[in-house]
Amino acid sequence: MNTEQSPFEKFGRWLKQSVGLKLSTITILMLLLLIPASMIKSIIHERESQNKSVLHEVSSKWANEQQINGPILTIPLVYEYLNNENETIKQTKHLHILPDQLNVNGDIEPKTLKRGIYEVVVYSSKLKVSGLFDLNAKIDQSGLKEIQFDKAFMSIGISDLRGIEDQIQLQWGKEKISVQPGSRLPIMMPSGVSLDVPNLAEDFTKMVNFSFDLNLQGSQNLSFIPVGGSTQVELQSPWPSPSFNGNFIPKTREVSDKGFTAKWKALLLNRNYPQSWVDRNMADRMQDSSFGVDLIMPLDDYQKATRSAKYAAMTISLIFLVFFLVEILNGKKIHPFQYTLVGLALCLFYVLLISISEHTNFNIAYLISAGVSSLLISLYSTSVFNSLKFTAILSSTILGIYTFLFVTLQLADYALLMGSIGLTVILAITMFFTRNINWYKLHVSAE
């Protein structure tokens, strides 16, 4: 009997037994499975955008981020000039004076508001603001005709006036003055309050103390402009996850599970604008010197889900590697369709994670999602491998991957280090188990 195979039969047998072709097929399947993984990232970003939309909506009803600017004392100056026709022209300019000292001491009480399945961080703050004005300002006397002390006013910038909870009364020397809504310095302070300063002619060239209490609501952020020649800000809050930002970081800070305490200090020499000026726009320079604190959700669920999805390629690659090694070591042929089903089960993990985490704690959602995905793949591999030994190896690998990923997500500052160490360990294990395989003489079983 002639058992010689035809060229087509030889080619077909090569297709079934070629390790290189098998690896190419697995690689193509893995790349194709990155498409649904990418779609999952889009879903996460969409849900995160919806969360931000809700955050903006709730903040707009409570009060937005708050920034405190001032107080700034403004005095109109009248100058007289002669033009080219020897006609006298009067021109009014404004002298702006910043406080020599500014101290802010405040307590921030955070709250979480819910809208559907979303949470928004807002706060109520109680701020005690005090300081000292040195009114011995140097004024350009050239052409100065009159100092209009009776029209002097003070401005306090508050970025969202809806957050003011109580009437503001400013103690100016021995006088107590109620403020009025509206900023009279629309360029430097688009939003704020103002008040007329009494008896300024008597106080001029003197040192005058001031103070006021400010009970203010806001959302997520509270910041300050260091207008004082020496500005000191001290804040306390039970919020455990602050993010200090801006042009100055706290000189001292203590952060724990019970909250935080932070102290800032900024001097005149630390910023790029003077203590007094006449008719110059300092708005941008002042804004550049701001500092403050964000009350953030610690590694919120969407950030964690996005970070976990970035490891999709690694997860799929490792599980496919285990399946391929089982083919090589156990001589069990696995069809590309079976690889595809396993890959889809891995992608299902991320969909379950983001959907469940919106309704419960992220760690619980991770446990459920990882458990469902692992159970699906392990039960399926029992039939595919027909070997409890290799099924146990695969289950251990999946458990190790999900455990490694969970630990990496918790350690935000050490994520890159953990990832590097994990990949090194994985490569070392793979090299160990494949060290004795002769790849040139290797064929996949054609059963």
Quaternary: single chain
Structural class: alpha+beta
Coarse morphology: elongated
| Major β-sheet profile | 10 strands, mixed
Number of strands: 18
Taking all residues together, what is the mean pLDDT?
80
Low-pLDDT stretches are 8-12
SS element count, helices? 10
**Strand-and-helix sequence, N→C?**
HHEEEEEEEEEEHEEEEEEEHEHHHHHH
- CATH level 1 class label of the largest domain: Mainly Beta
Distance N to C terminus: 23 Å
Count of all domains: 2
Strand percentage lies at 25-35%
| Second-tier CATH architecture of the largest domain | Sandwich
CATH-defined fold name of the largest domain: Immunoglobulin-like
Question: What gyration radius follows from the Cα positions, in whole Å?
Answer: 34 Å
- Which percent bin holds the helix content? 40-55%
Protein name: Inner membrane protein
GO cellular component, one term: plasma membrane
Transmembrane segments: 21-40, 311-330, 337-356, 362-381, 388-408, 414-433
Organism: Marinifilum flexuosum
Detailed description of the structure:
By secondary structure, this protein is α+β, with helices and mostly antiparallel strands. The protein folds into two domains: 16-50 and 301-435, no CATH class; 65-297, Immunoglobulin-like (Sandwich), CATH 2.60.40. It contains ten helices and 18 strands. Strands 1, 2, 5, 6, 9, 10, 12, 14, 17 and 18 form a ten-stranded mixed beta sheet that branches. An eight-stranded mixed beta sheet has the order 8-7-11-4-3-13-16-15. The protein is elongated.
